[in-house]
Write a structure and sequence with these properties.
The complex is a heterodimer of chains A (about 525) and B (about 300). Chain A has about 525 residues and is mainly alpha-helical. Chain A has 20 helices and 4 strands. The model of chain A has no long low-confidence stretch (mean pLDDT about 80). Chain B is mostly helical. Chain B contains 11 helices and no strands. Chain B has helices at about 1-30, 45-55, 60-70, 85-120, 125-140, 145-155, 175-205, 205-215, 220-255, 260-270, 275-300. Chain B is flat. Residues about 30-35 of chain B have low confidence and may be disordered. Classes of the chains: A mainly alpha (about 525), B mainly alpha (about 300). Chains A and B meet through helix 12, helix 13, helix 18, helix 19 and helix 20 of A and helix 1, helix 5, helix 6, helix 7 and helix 9 of B.
Chain lengths: ~525, ~300
């Protein structure tokens, strides 16, 4: 209301009539931080990581938990796709076999060299060498595959050409002379009829069948919810559930079931047709269109050639793409780092502020608890907690948050104790501000710089702790990944598959470096006097 | 001084009590009831455990009895192995961990102080940059990355050292080098940084200038005068350093397949061998508490400015 008419405050000027611009701590700190090159670079790196982690679901990467057993342990490659790598592997294998059988002669030195590699367990060196040497000889014409070998190559070739990955999104039904309809929108009887027609039975049989399946499904849920009951008790519960099930709900259950079955049938049929088409190259892949399944049925199908995938960072022991696993693993690690830090800082700040401001018995009690907890080997207690309460992300997160508020509470307490006798607090108190207001509006905002600096340095150590547990197999469990679990999985096979160790370790190290530099930079910026301290 | 030591000793007691209490209740609240876990126990072990814990007694009585047993040094039977009790397995593996830990902490203290001092004396020279770069690596890179990388480079690629194993595997002392280096890295880094900053501060102080003005040799200035002032923050860091070594050894023993307490600990936490886990934690805690106590005493001896009454 009066805001617009408010007079401009008279500006402060110095003796030369120049305007004095106010300077706040945060502004000053920001200026100092911008001067620190390492810190600025680190800010960018951290932003990139966080963006990648947040955008992971919409990035054009393969699903992190998609297992393709054919693609186990493929090398990282920027130019070759999975099929080419598989073919290389097969050829190298065949050359090596031929060498063992004596059909592929090498000079004595080379023989010794290869045997030395085999003794050391460095089989991949042997394969690389044999592949190179074999290709030269093939080009020269001094070595040819025998028929059995050629057949294996051909089989692989067909396989590479025809293996498809297919997903069916929707199945459509087109009545005669009508418009196509999504089958899940049809009335139940019609869906049952369509399915019965598809598998060659009658509607009655199918309806009865579904009645039974529903019962079984319910029974399973009941058994999961209450284990250790007798059969009679189960039957009683089941009857209760069935009578409680309304007609509509029952119909929905059946409908969902049948639609899923029709979709999977349609998928099988489409896959069969498309495989043939891929074999004689009459269709172009990747394909994304509606194709006719049977009679009036058609389906929206998405199909890609499985072996045209590219793995820029290689794959793991189950053929999962390492690139997407690192990105999703980063998501888990970074999320735990940030959320865990925020939780522990919240707990620590509130308890520290209470202890520092109120003093007396409360202070004594909180600080004794902190002292005792400091003496505990807390990492080991976390391991016990994970072992007993189950290994999952939520438990891990709680276990970490509960133990990590100690240091921050001590720091905040010290800060508050030094602030609480200053004039502005006394002024607030004399104006009758309640304790809560003094703590949350005056004391905590004034110790914010300490808290921010500490939190930034806390994030990497949180991530390290999480990864440490995941490395031991006590943290994040498959199919989820975190940087720690990726490194942990890679250690066993690192001679043969060094990329599995190298890339996650690198991704993690860069992030931790950046966070540490950023934390150091922030500390120097907020408190320039501490420059030469640790 | 004696008073201080006694008071400090009394302060150790609540920590130990808390640890034992937590351990006791953790074993009680383990899902599926304490003694009928998801895996069926061997009959012998079951009988042993029932006899040991008097399951039918009131909880407080059980707790008191457990406390008494632990204080006497009896950690009870193992859930998993029926041949021996927890004490046996701990005494079997503890020496290996001790050897590794002592070597690692010595390496990190000696080299940390050395490189920190060199960095401070030759501030802004290549020695300074090199040792601080090493320190940054040590602080940022987790040891479960350093371990495998060292293994890959020095054992697999260069073949200088064995990849894993312990004394009995025939490689003798060579097996200790890589794990000890890995374990020492993080603490080395922190100690080097601490020493450097503390040394820089000391070198700027007045009494060093006086010593220089007297024309003393710079080596005796550093070792006789500056050393003492530099040591304080390092001694106070030793407490957390021991804790770090203990948790670190869990991973290092896993990576280098060392039959130590840490490997045992992880294994038993997978086996859900609760009594063994709790036993190991109690042993670790006792070591840690004793170490913290010693560090405090040494600190109070070193720092003449603080009087303890």
């Amino acid at each position: 209301m009066n805001l617009l008419n408010k007079q401009a405050e008279p500006q402060a000027t110095n003796e030369f009539d120049q305007v004095i611009v106010g300077n706040s701590l945060s502004k000053d700190a920001w200026r100092r931080l911008k001067k620190n090159k390492m810190a600025v670079i680190s800010v960018f790196i951290v932003i990139i990581y966080v963006l990648l982690a947040i955008c992971a679901p919409i990035l054009p990467i393969y699903p992190y938990d998609e297992i393709i057993l054919d693609h186990q342990h493929l090398k990282p490659s920027l130019v070759k796709n999975a099929g080419q790598l598989l073919m290389e592997k097969r050829m190298a294998d065949l050359y090596t076999q031929a060498w063992r059988e004596g059909r592929f002669e090498l000079s004595e030195e080379k023989d010794d060299m290869i045997w030395a590699w085999i003794d050391k367990g460095e089989v991949n060196k042997v394969w690389d060498y044999m592949y190179k040497e074999g290709n030269i000889r093939m080009a020269e014409g001094t070595f040819v595959f025998n028929t059995a070998e050629q057949r294996r190559i051909d089989t692989l070739n067909t396989k590479l050409k025809t293996d498809l990955q297919i997903s069916v999104k929707k199945v459509w039904y087109t009545p005669e002379g009508g418009k196509r309809i999504n089958i899940s929108k049809l009335p139940l009887e019609e869906i049952v009829a369509i399915y019965a027609d598809m598998v060659g039975t009658t509607s009655e049989i199918e309806t009865e069948q579904y009645g039974r399946e529903i019962e079984q499904q319910l029974l399973k849920t009941i058994m999961r919810q209450n284990p250790d009951l007798t059969t009679e008790e189960y039957n009683l519960l089941l009857d209760k559930e069935l009578s409680g099930l309304s007609e509509r709900k029952r119909d929905t259950l059946i409908r969902e079931n049948i639609v899923a079955k029709i979709t999977s049938q349609a998928k099988d049929i489409a896959l069969f047709d498309l495989k043939e088409a891929a074999g004689n190259e009459s269709v172009n892949f990747p394909l994304n269109k509606e194709i006719t399944i049977k009679g009036a049925l058609s389906a929206s199908v998405k199909a890609t050639k499985m072996h045209e995938r590219r793995y820029y960072l290689g794959t793991d022991h189950q053929g999962r793409d390492l690139l997407s696993r690192i990105i999703y693993g980063g998501q888990v690690s970074i999320a735990i780092g940030f959320i865990g830090t925020i939780t522990s800082v919240l707990i620590g700040t509130i308890l520290g502020a209470l202890a520092g401001y109120l003093g007396g018995k409360i202070d004594y009690f909180i600080m004794r608890v902190v002292d005792i907890m400091y003496g505990l080997p807390y990492m080991l207690l976390v391991i016990i907690a994970m072992a007993i309460f189950g290994r999952n992300i939520i438990n891990l997160f709680f276990a970490l948050a509960i133990i990590s508020w100690l240091t921050i509470s001590r720091m905040v307490r010290g800060q508050i104790m030094s602030l609480k006798n200053q004039e502005f607090i006394e002024a607030a108190r004399s104006m009758g501000a309640p304790t809560r207001r003094i703590i949350f509006r005056h004391l905590i905002p004034n110790s914010l710089s300490v808290i921010i600096v500490f939190s930034t340095l806390r994030i990497p150590s949180f991530i390290m702790t999480e990864s440490f547990l995941s490395f031991l197999g006590l943290g994040v469990q498959a199919p989820y990944a975190s940087w720690g679990s990726l490194v942990g999985d890679a250690v066993a096979g690192m001679t043969l598959y060094p990329w599995k160790l190298f890339f996650p370790a690198l991704a993690m190290t860069i992030f931790l470096f950046a966070m540490n530099f950023l934390g150091d930079g922030l500390r120097d910026a907020f408190d320039p006097q501490s420059k030469n301290q640790l | 001084m004696t008073k201080y030591i006694i008071r400090r000793l009394l302060g150790v007691i609540p920590t130990l009590l808390v640890i034992i209490t937590i351990s006791f209740f953790i074993v009680r609240v383990a899902p599926g009831g304490p003694f009928d876990g998801e895996r069926a126990l061997p009959e012998v072990v079951k009988r042993n455990i029932e006899a040991k814990y008097h399951i039918n007694d009131p909880l407080l009585v059980q707790y008191g009895r457990y406390m008494f047993d632990v204080l006497r040094g009896d950690l009870g039977p193992s859930y998993r192995y029926k041949d021996h009790d927890v004490n046996f397995y701990i005494f079997e593996s503890l020496p290996n961990s001790m050897v590794l830990g002592v070597i690692a902490i010595s390496i990190s203290v000696i080299f940390g102080i050395l490189s920190g001092m060199l960095a401070a004396i030759h501030q802004n020279s290549w020695i300074d940059y090199l040792s601080m770069a090493l320190a940054v690596v040590g602080i940022s890179v987790p040891l479960f990355v350093i371990g495998p990388v060292l293994q890959y480079v020095f054992a697999m690629k260069l073949g200088w050292l064995p990849t894993s194993g312990w004394f009995s595997t025939g490689d003798g002392w060579k097996t200790v080098i890589l794990p000890a280096l890995t374990l020492a890295f993080a603490d080395f880094a922190t100690i080097a940084r601490l020493t450097r900053s503390s040394m820089l501060e000391t070198l700027r102080s007045d009494y060093i200038r006086t010593a220089k003005a007297k024309g003393m040799k710079s080596s005796s200035i550093i070792f006789k005068h500056a050393m003492k002032g530099t040591m304080l923050p390092i001694v106070s860091y030793l407490g957390p350093a021991f804790a770090g070594i203990i948790t670190g050894s869990v991973v290092v023993e896993q990576v280098f397949r060392i039959p130590g307490l840490g490997k045992f600990f992880v294994q038993s936490s997978f086996n859900r061998d609760y009594t063994l886990i709790v036993g190991v934690v109690i042993v670790y805690s006792v070591i840690l508490v004793i170490m913290n106590f010693l560090v405090d005493i040494v600190y109070s001896l070193l720092d003449p400015r603080i009087t303890y009454t």
